[in-house]
Amino acid sequence: MNEITVSGWTVLDTAHEALRSTVRGITAADLDRPTPCSEWTVAQVLQHAAGDQLAYAASITGGPGPDFNPFAPSGSLDAEPLALLEPALTAGAAAWATVDRDAAEAPVPVPPGSLAPWLGAGAAALDAAVHAWDIALATGQESPLTAGLARDLHKVAVEIVEPLRRFGAYAAPIDAPGDEIADLLHYLGRDPAWTA
User: Fold this and answer.
1) Domains of the chain by range and CATH?
2) Residue 75 class from Cβ within 10 Å (0-12 exposed, 13-18 middle, 19+ buried)?
3) Is pTM, for the whole model, over 0.90?
4) Residue 54 CB: number of other CB atoms within 10 A?
5) In the chain, at which end, N or C, are there fewer CB atoms within 10 A of the end residue's CB?
6) pLDDT, block means (10 residues), the chain with 196 residues
């Protein structure tokens, strides 16, 4: 078994493992299933999630990002799901491992283009973890979100999500009571009780 690259940022490493574990649980028959991202299938969410992690890595390293638009995923995979995802997670973790925690800011591929390092790593984590949840729900797996992870990600979400809603990255928030996981999902415009 290959050694997994870690970033040293707990929230990001936890989110990466949530996405990795969820993708391990999907089959070829799952790839065309609908997801809570209403316009996208499981394959498209997977492509988007992998592309986003590559974009975060490229922002830090100056290296190449995804060779497709993560916001227009084709849904056609040229590799097994985990083989598509793992290089993106490895690149993302390796890039974030180089970021100085005491730096004033770190480059990110989302507006405003740079964030405090803890927030940038959290933004990458939010993307990975929420798409892990999307895929898990679509494929009948257990939610990979824990109360602790959701609590940490909610702190990130309130700092970065509002400007991103204008670009369609997140739906309007849902006003409903819930636990830490539901609160995060509601804030991101996702219904914890979604079904296909």
Assistant:
1) 10-143 (1.20.120.450)
2) middle
3) yes
4) 24
5) N
6) 84 98 97 95 98 98 94 94 97 98 96 96 98 98 97 97 86 93 96 92
